[in-house]
Amino acid sequence: MPTLYVEGVPEETYEALRAHARANRTSISSEVLKLLEGAFPTRAELARRRKAYETITKRYKKPNRDMPSTLDLIREDRAR
Predict the structure, then answer these.
(1) C-alpha span between 29 and 7 (Å, rounded)
(2) Which residues are CB-neighbours of 62 under 8 A, at least 6 positions away?
(3) Which of 28, 29, 1, 3 is closest to 15 using CA atoms?
(4) 34, 65, 74, 79 - which has most CB atoms within 10 Å?
(5) Rounded to 5 degrees, what are φ and ψ at 70?
(6) How far apart are CA 43 and CA 48, in angstroms?
(7) How far apart are CA 77 and CA 80, in angstroms?
(8) What pLDDT band is residue 68 in, cutting at 50, 70 and 90?
(9) What per-residue confidence (pLDDT) applies to 22?
(10) Angle formed by the axes of helices 11-23 and 28-39, nearest 10°
(11) What is the pTM of this model?
(12) Per-residue CA distances from 36 to 27, 40, 61, 62, 75 (Å)
């Protein structure tokens, strides 16, 4: 696994990151990785999102309407 070194981090940014890590009971390294993963999705994550989007758009494609009404969604949910 590659290693990433970051130089010149402003003191305020570092302290905010350290406080955030401490609040989550994780290391600073873990917090940085979590932030990077959220900001830069992998190809696999983008493919998962694309598939979810396609599933949603296929499911709710109805003639003469782009999306179901809120009432239709509530009725569908209650019928389960």
Answers:
(1) 14
(2) 68
(3) 28
(4) 34
(5) -60, -40
(6) 9
(7) 6
(8) confident
(9) 96
(10) 100
(11) 0.56
(12) 14, 6, 35, 38, 40
Q: Which residues contact 76 (CB under 8 A, 6 or more apart)?
A: 68
Tell me the C-alpha distance between 42 and 59, whole Å: 26
pLDDT of 36-64, one tens digit each? 988 999 999 999 999 999 998 888 765 55
Tens digits of residue pLDDT in 7-16: 999 999 999 9
The residue type at 30 = S
Which two three-digit tokens encode residue 70?
């809120």
Owner of token pair 């302290």: 15
Structure tokens that stand for 1 in this block = 């696994």
Tokens of 24: 């989550």
CA terminus-to-terminus distance, the chain: 45
